[in-house]
Structures are given as C-alpha cells and as structure tokens.
Specification:
The protein has about 140 residues and is mostly helical. The protein contains six helices and two strands. It has a two-stranded parallel ribbon with strand order 1-2.
Length: about 140
C-alpha cells in the first residue's frame, strides 16, 4: 500500500512542476532559437559582466528569476520599469524584500550597461548563456 501512495504522490508532484514550468515558459519573453543571437553590443556585454558579478546569485543566470527574486526580463519588459526606475532600484535596493543597495558597488555607467543587458534579454535580442562581445 505504501509504495502505491508514494507513486501517486510523485506523479502529482511531476504534474504540478510541469504545469508550473509551462506557465513560466508562456509568461517569459520569447528567446532567440537555439544558436540564436549571442553577440552582444559592448554595453550589453559589459552589463552581462556586472550582472554576473552582483545579480545572478539571486535573479539567476540569464535574468530568469528564482524562488526569491523576480524575473528581471519581465520587470523591464513591455510596460515594465524605465531605465531610471531600474537604476534607482539597483542603486537603493529593496530592503523590505531583502535586496541590498548596490550604489557603493556600481557606477552610473555600469547601471546603464546592466539595464542594456537585461533589456536585451527581455526583448529576446540576446539569447541565454555567455554572450560574445561585438567588435
């Protein structure tokens, strides 16, 4: 009896996780096809470096979000934050949500580069993974 219950529980968890993944995929901005755009402008590439130094441990690789930090592609996507609002959140943090302020760690130029990277990921013009810097 116990193995049957475990099997039913595992099947239910699998269905729930598949449904959650499908919902996230449909809500996420569209990505270039496999092998798609991986060449970034100099600003996007430098923004990727800033992102991977400070942001990906909470917002996950490629800005897709995690269980405790939002998907940044959606945060600045259509009807999302402007560049100045994004820079303000990064600089000042969101202490009520556990996000530290980064104003002592990043420059204004780096904030602009960070926005360029996340905006390109949001628009789907820059694919996932490590980008190549355009000349």
């Amino acid at each position: 009896m116990m193995p049957a219950l475990i099997g039913v529980a595992l099947a239910a968890i699998t269905v729930i996780e598949a449904t959650r993944a499908a919902a996230q995929d449909s809500a996420a901005p569209k990505q270039p096809a496999a092998g798609g755009a991986t060449t970034a402008s100099p600003a996007e590439y430098d923004g990727w470096k800033v992102y991977h130094s400070y942001c990906d441990r909470c917002h996950a690789q490629d800005a897709i979000g995690s269980s405790f930090a939002p998907n940044l592609r959606q945060s600045i996507g259509a009807n999302g934050m402007t560049e100045s609002a994004f820079a303000s959140v990064v600089a000042d943090g969101r202490p009520d949500k556990g996000m530290p302020a980064f104003k002592t760690m990043v420059t204004d130029a780096q904030l602009g580069q960070l926005y360029a990277y996340v905006k390109a990921r949001s628009a789907g013009t820059l694919g996932p993974g490590r980008p190549k810097r355009s000349p």
